[in-house]
Amino acid sequence: MPNVSPRRRLVGGLVGTFVEWYDFLIYGLSAPVLAVHFFPDSNPTAALLGTFGIYAVAFLVRPLGGIFFGYLGDRGGRIKTLALTVLLMGAATMLTGLLPTYDSIGIWAAVLLLLCRLGQGFSAGGETSGGLSYIVESAPDGRRARWISYCVAASFLPVVVASLLIVSLRAGLGHEAYTSWGWRVPFIAGGLLALVGLWLRRKLDDPEEYVEAVNDVAPANPIRSATREGLSSIVKVIFLVAVQAVGGYMLLSFMYSYLITSGGLSATSALLSNALSITVMAALTPVFGSLADRIGRKPLMLAGAAWLLAGAWPALQLASSGNVVSATIGQLIIAVGVALFASGGFVTMLELFSTNIRFTGHAIGYNIGYAIFGGTTPLVAVALVNATNSALAPAFYLMAIAAVGLVAVISTPETRNIRLRDAGVDEQVAWENHAPVRSS
Fold it and tell me: What pLDDT digit, counting tens, does each position of 146-173 carry?
């Protein structure tokens, strides 16, 4: 097996993650124009709801993708499986950019859009758990939270790049040309980028932590082992991921359309404002991740959930004000809370599982959580605004989820010093005995 340095694994993992999540998140930024092309134009609100409905349905297949790719990743290796996820994601993304529209084939356009989005969702079900498992198992001792935070930041930044690409296309082509055909360019570019991600991942190898673990104890069926040995951890992950999913997707997928429809901002102003807040969120996450390595994961998660609980209302009030500066400040409030929670939450959700079932166990809990809370966030938020006729209604949803998150964090053990090989056993024993876990 080739000897790849940990730092090279980190860089390769980050680039692959960036490409994968560019492809997955471009849909949310393109929602307004997709609604125009893939649904009847007689009811714009219904068209936007239909577009976000397809966005949400894609998350329902993420647990299936997580189980499928998790099994492959725990049995056959991280890198081979991650090559498959990026290939599937790239194909589904490029096909989206080549689809005929409602004007050409009627309702079948929406059906084909749904199929492409389901392909993206199935791929994403394996990408996050596989990519993060690869990074945490490659990280040096005492730096796991920081390295995972780099990976999380790499999953945030594609929205910024995609936003700037869309702004450039709008400016260069003009509104009419972009709406007519220019919207396809980011999707086609995503398919080409996936080939770059595939090439990079094929040059990596599996981390020693994983290789040694499966050589020691290789589960015959990772799905059965994960659901038996790691069931309590799976449940914890589902509720921990709720805060990250709702807070994160408020910014990553919902806020752009919200700033236009509820805040009255222009498409360009909304994109730039949203891109700035996400950039700040990505920059803060590794900073908080370093802190999580020093003081523990739980303080950061508690701070993030409490911040979102207190800040959701003023954040949405500012975001819907119609003023670009106020809208940016409102989004930054959410960005700080998400970054705080992500810095401790993402690494904790991985450290709850032992190495030989980490991919599968994390994939099941993480993707069930995202299916329930993440993919539905834009749909729930739009529905709340329409049902209450109040632009501030989504704030209550975020506050409720943050409150649930506080309870979930309190019931989750601190995992900073856990030994990855035995994580699922050690953290439970330490928690039950109220004793510190043994260090790696």
Answer: 999 999 998 888 888 888 888 899 889 9
